Amino acid sequence: MPKPSLRDSILDAGLKTMFRTGYHGTSVRDVVAAAGAPQGSFTNHFRSKEAFAAEVLERYFATVRGLVAQALDDTSLTPRARLRRYLDIITGRLEGDGFTRGCLIGDLSLEASGSSEMLRVRLGQIFEEWREPFAACIAAAQAAGEIAADFEPQELAEFLLASWQGAMLRMKVERSPAALERFKKIVFQTTFRELS
Fold first, then answer.
1. What are the C-alpha distances in Å from 59 to residues 5, 42, 52, 54, 159?
2. Stretch 168-191: mean pLDDT, rounded?
3. Cα(126)–Cα(71) distance, rounded to whole angstroms?
4. What is the DSSP annotation of the chain?
5. How many other C-beta atoms can be found within 10 angstroms of the C-beta atom of residue 69?
6. Is the dihedral of CA 32, 36, 39, 44 positive or negative?
7. What percentage of the chain has pLDDT greater than the value 90?
8. Burial class (CB in 10 A: 0-12, 13-18, 19+), 42
9. In angstroms, rounded to a whole number, what is the distance separating the alpha carbons of residues 135 and 112?
10. CA-CA distance, 92 to 3, in Å (whole number)?
11. CB 108 within 8 A of CB 185
12. How far is C-alpha 91 from the geometric centre of its chain's CA atoms?
């Protein structure tokens, strides 16, 4: 009988470890120890740490896609309220981690994009894909007359995601939701202010 694959356990352990110690601070030894797997299992499934990190990133982004859909596909809310709902969902998840963990996409963008061309390119693609449902929601809010149409929806989506990443970085430093709440308060009273 063949041995069960440890691939999923190694990926799960890698996600947790990279969140805690970062890309450069995570060793293969750390990951296999956390997964309770022999070191050979890693090399059986992944050709390099870089390739492994790319798969961890994909696994994480799949979760992010689900959270985006949970908020932005909720047609019981207005488009503007859906944008707010997404930020509130993320805030709740960050609170569950004691405001110590941010976004792996943002973390890897800071840490790995300078040392891994493969990860840099994939992160760029992820940001482009991530932007699209926000741009569509913003366009719907503009079409409904909820928010101003001074800027293109894609530009506003880029602004929202980039600024939110910055707020999460500050949150991690402060171990507090203050930066997140400040961002939400300001952005919904200015850029995404409801038109009367």
1. 17, 17, 11, 9, 25
2. 97
3. 18
4. -PPPP-HHHHHHHHHHHHHHHHHHH--HHHHHHHHT--HHHHHHH-SSHHHHHHHHHHHHHHHHHHHHHHHHT-TTS-HHHHHHHHHHHHHHHHHHTTT----HHHHHHHHTTTT-HHHHHHHHHHHHHHHHHHHHHHHHHHHTTSS--SS-HHHHHHHHHHHHHHHHHHHHHHTSSHHHHHHHHHHHHTTTPPP-
5. 12
6. negative
7. 90
8. buried
9. 27
10. 39
11. no
12. 12
pLDDT band at 66 (very low <50, low <70, confident <90, very high): very high
State both tokens at 37.
Answer: 């797997």
Q: What's the pTM?
A: 0.92
